[in-house]
Amino acid sequence: MWIANIGDSRAVVCERGAANQLTVDHEPHTTNERKRIEKQGGFVSTFLGDVPRVNGQLAVARAFGDQSLKAYLSSEPDVKHVPINSSVEFVILASDGLWKVIKNQEAVNLVNSIKDPQATAKRLTSEVLAKR
C-alpha cells in the first residue's frame, strides 16, 4: 500500500489489534516545519488558547490551497510504502477532526469489531461528537 499525506490528514493501520501511525501530521510548530516556514520568510505564532498557526492564520504547515500563504507552505506530500500482509486488519484515514479528539489506539479499539466501512465512519464520528 502507498500512503501519501499532506496537512492534517493521518493514516493509522490496525495490525494485530495495535494502532500504528503511518503518516506524520504537518503541524507548524514541529521543528522541521517551523524551520522550513521561517526559511521562506514566514512565521509561526501561538496565541493563548489557540493552536500554532502559519502567519497567525493556518494551523497546518502543508496544504494545496491558501493562496495568500503559498510562499510559506509546502504542497509536497510525505509518501510511504507499507507492505500489507495478513496481520494488517484495516486502515483509518482521517483528518484532525478525529485525531485531535481521539488517540490512535482508542480509534482502533472503537471500531475493531465493525466490518462495514460506513458503520465504522459513523461510530468514529459519533464518538468525536460525544466528546466535544
Report on this model:
This protein is of the alpha+beta class and 132 residues long. It is 27% helix and 22% strand. The chain is built from four helices and seven strands; from the N terminus they run βββαββββααα. It has helices at 31-39, 96-99, 104-111, 117-131, and strands at 2-5, 10-15, 18-21, 44-45, 53-54, 78-81, 88-94. Strands 3-2-7 form a three-stranded antiparallel β-sheet. A two-stranded antiparallel sheet has the order 1-6. A two-stranded antiparallel ribbon has the order 4-5. The chain is globular, with a radius of gyration of 16 Å. The protein starts with a strand and ends with a helix. 22% of the residues are buried. The mean pLDDT is 94. It catalyses: O-phospho-L-seryl-[protein] + H2O = L-seryl-[protein] + phosphate; O-phospho-L-threonyl-[protein] + H2O = L-threonyl-[protein] + phosphate. One of its GO terms (molecular function) is protein serine/threonine phosphatase activity. Residues 1-132 form the PPM-type phosphatase domain. InterPro entries: PP2C (IPR015655), PPM-type-like_dom_sf (IPR036457), PPM-type_phosphatase-like_dom (IPR001932).
What labels describe this entry?
132 residues, alpha+beta, 2 domains, 3-stranded antiparallel β-sheet, two-stranded antiparallel ribbon, 4 helices, 27% helix, 22% strand, globular, PPM-type_phosphatase-like_dom, hydrolase
Number of helices: 4
Which regions have little confidence, pLDDT < 50, spanning 5+ residues?
none
What is the strand tally?
7
Distance between the terminal alpha carbons, to the nearest Å? 33 Å
- Helix/strand-derived category reads alpha+beta
Q: Which strands sit side by side, in order, in the main sheet?
A: 3-2-7
Question: What's the Cα radius of gyration?
Answer: 16 Å
What does the largest sheet look like? Answer: 3 strands, antiparallel
Q: Strand-residue fraction?
A: 15-25%
Shape: globular
How much helical structure, as a percent, in the residues? 25-40%
